[in-house]
Amino acid sequence: MGETVRTLAYGEWPSPIDAATAAAHDGGPEFVGFVGDEVWWTEPRPAEGGRRALVRRHADGTEEPALPAPWNVRSRVIEYGGRPWAGTVRDGVPLVVFVNFADQRLYRYEPGGEPRPLTPVSPVGQGLRWADPVLPPDRDEVWCVLEEFTGDGPSDVRRVLAAVPLDGSAAGDRGTVRELSDGRHRFVTGPRLAPDGRRACWLGWDHPRMPWDGTELLVADVLADGTLREARTVAGGPEESVAQADWTPDGRLLYASDRTGWWNLYRDGEPVCPREEEFGGPLWKLGLRWFAPLDSGLIAVLHGRGAPVLGVLDPETCELVDAAGPWSEFAPTLAAHGERVVAAGAGPRSGHEVVELDTRTGHARVIGARHEDAVDPAYYPEPRVRTFTGPGGREIHARVYPPHHPGCAGPADERPPYVIRAHGGPTGRAPLVLDLEIAYFTSRGIGVAEVDYGGSTGYGREYRDRLRGQWGVVDVEDCAAVALALADEGTADRGRLAIRGGSAGGWTAAASLTTTDVYACGTISYPVLDLTGWGTGETHDFESQYLESLIGPRAEVPERYAERSPAAHADRLTAPFLMLQGLDDVICPPAQCERFLARLAGRGVPHAYLTFEGEGHGFRRAETMVRALEAELHLYAQVFGMRPPGVPALELGT
What we know:
Layout: E1 6-7, H1 19-24, E2 30-35, E3 38-45, E4 51-57, E5 63-65, E6 85-90, E7 93-99, E8 106-109, E9 116-117, E10 128-134, E11 141-149, E12 157-165, E13 178-179, E14 187-188, E15 192-193, E16 199-205, E17 216-222, E18 228-236, E19 242-247, E20 253-257, E21 264-267, E22 270-272, E23 291-293, E24 299-303, E25 309-313, E26 320-322, E27 329-337, E28 340-347, E29 350-358, E30 363-368, E31 384-389, E32 395-401, E33 408-409, E34 418-422, H2 436-442, E35 447-452, H3 461-464, H4 474-488, E36 497-502, H5 504-515, E37 521-525, H6 531-538, H7 547-550, H8 558-564, E38 577-582, H9 590-600, E39 607-612, H10 622-640
């Protein structure tokens, strides 16, 4: 006999998914790669202070952390970081170089030995930083991006391609680091070497452009002494974004460009099987990869509209065959070795796993970071991919996660509360993967909708450009349109709608609460709140001129910076809210929250402000994530009149 379904108020269903379970499964494998025949990758360790572990999968299938705690393999280049490691086999032994987060130095590591520093500690500013390394096969060096601070300000910085000796001589002598590029571009990605070693390619761009606005693809000759000569731009420009470049095994230049409005592949400048879908994405971290050339001439690709999937493309016939399996979404990390491809795939019922595809047989299997159900999958949410209609008839893409519980249902005469989630970026999108933070709410009877508002990636440049000059308008309108549509169709309770987001999503949440009456409450995490401060020295160099496109040229529309800022409209806020902030955040610093709260003081708006020492932009420690998630649930409980069992109280002050 089946289990009897109980009728309980929405938000009060008992759930086995507690905050600790959700926190323990936050994040997934990143930066997969081959070291000889072995597969290595990085993955999060929330219970170990949030470090990123470097994991090694041996040929026999066993996996282990290559480095014990507290080694933390993570780069701070452009603050969001980038590929932090590279590996090869020399004399039959793995040789790996990696960036250690604590000191941002490059280290050399051979299994069985201790890591040895390759670079010095900087005496100036925020240090010397390194990312996106490659080990040239015929040189005793690692080539990578060097980010060097020249002063104490966030924009006192230069970036070049550099070659670091593998013998450790640069550990105490910055002068032995060879600079490979001339610093003509403010931002660069790491070099990719042609198979014959005679050419190198990389990407460069400059303020005020972001990499999804316009980049240049540069190619230089590599001389016998390892210097680069005659760097020339072969693709890209102010209105063309090249997201990735590499070389085919026969030495042809392969890259992803959005010159047609979609990131498509080009080989030596000629289009490869053009389609109205994406074969690239936003370069938030240096070294992201959406394609990988194979020895056979085929190309492993991530592609699609919305969620990218893994496929193998024949550039001669345009045949594209997707990997069979339960994975509906792949992260932008790929590596190829012979005919093997490794990637990080996930789906609505699994977090990201390391997936290997044998392109000869078409067989795909999980080989690392295997998803294991922490609870009965019957409690997982069941997403619905939907398209809504926004102002002017525009399409809005979203994922809707209704309340879901195998043993509970809500009262027939009641509609559930819904939380609208605005993703960060804002140039990004919400992934279609199992997220136990979402399940934490849906299994208790609270619906969730993730909105890919105008400006999101995955739907072509026109959709992405909707946010140009319209940040704080289009994102707010699109989230509200989805929320109200859910209410109008009877899916959600109109009186119990909330909005939440972090970073740029925190901005959208705050802007929504100060300019609309759609939501009864909201959660605002490490947000942008005051454009006049954020764009003039309060944030890091990478995004310091992002507002030139999101809001408009400051010199031409200075008033818009004040008008759009939620901090300028704190007096309009009446809905209760929760604000969460890492005290070590240099991207959206605590000063943003503090000014907002100062302007709200004395107005009697119920709220809580929780800060976390040792946390930066985005939370990585298990105890932080637990506190934040439980506080968010209790905010909704108080505002929506729910009594969820076993949740610590959140005290709202005024």
